[in-house]
Amino acid sequence: MTDTKHSKILIIGSGPAGYTAAIYTARANLKPMLITGMQPGGQMTTTTEVENYPGFADVIQGPWLMEQMRKQALHVGTDMIIDTITKVDLNSKPKKAFGSSGTIYTADAVIIATGAQAQWLGLETEEIFKGYGVSACATCDGFFYKDKNVAVIGGGNTAVEEALFLTGFAKHVTLIHRRDELRAEKILQDRVFENKKISIMWDSELTEVLGNPPNNGDNNAPVGVSAMKVKNVKTGKAAEYPIDGIFVAIGHKPATDLFKDIIDMDKTGYINTAPDSTATNIEGVFAAGDVADNKYRQAVTAAGMGCMAALEADRWLAEQNTAKKDSNAA
Fold this sequence. Notes:
Number of helices: 7
Largest sheet: 7 strands, mixed
Shape: elongated
Strand content: 25-35%
Structural class: alpha/beta
Helix content: 25-40%
Number of strands: 17
Order of helices and strands: EHEHEEEEEHEHEHEHEEEEEEEH
C-alpha cells in the first residue's frame, strides 16, 4: 500500500529559499512539509566561506549556515523529509508530488525551491579545489582576491560580467575563452576591451587546476590554487600560468526538469513568476530562490524570496478558505 502524507503546504527543495519558506509557514501554523531533495542545504553546502550574509561579523561556513537554518525550521515545526521528488501533478486538488521513496505527498499549496546549479567544466582538479580557489560566483567570493591575480572561464554575458566585477578587487583578471570572439553583448565586450585590468586568452581552455589541495597532509603549505594549465585549442600547445583564483562562468542550470511542460518557464529553464511576486502561472504554486532568479543568485535574495513565497502562500490559502466558507454558507 502506497504511503500518502498531506499538509497544507509542501516545500520542494532546501537551501536558503526552502528553509526560509519553511520557517515562515511553520510560524503561520501551516505545518509545512519540506522535501530536502538530493542535496539538503543546496549550493551553500559547497561554499566554504561566507562573508556577505547579514548578521555575522566574522566569516562563517556555508554548511554551518544551512545547518542553522535547517534546525530553525525544525524548531518552529517543519516536517523535514529526506526524499527526492520524481513527478508532480500540480493541477490536481490537492496537488501531488511523488517521492523516489514511493511516498505520495499531497498539499493545498506548493512552494518550489529546487534552486539552480552552476555549470562546471568537469575537470577532476576543478572538483578538488572547489571552495579552495575555484568558484562559480564572483559576487560571493571576489572579495577574497583583493590585489590578487584571477582567471575567469567563459565568453558569454556571465563570464564578462564576472570579469568586470572582479576588477574591483583583483590586481589582474585573465578571461579564458575557447573561441576567437566573445558571445557577450556588445556593450559588455566594449567594457572588457577598454578595461586595462583585463586580458583575454583566445582559443584557449583550462585543462588542469594546480596547487596544494585540501586534506593532503602538508600543514606547512597553504591550501589553495597556485597555478593553472591552459591549452590552445587550435595549436594544441599547453602551458602553466601562476594564478590565485579561478572563476568558472559558463552559466547556471535551474533544477526545473521536474516541472517541464507543467509550469511556465523562460527559454533557459527558469520559472516565470508574476511581477513583484513568487506566484507562478498555476494557482497555489509559488517559486522562490535561484529556481526563479537568473540575475542575482545570492543566498540573501533566495532567503528573501522564500519569505515572500511563504507570505503569499499563506495569503492564498486564507483566501481559498474564505471562498469555501462563503460557498458553503450560500
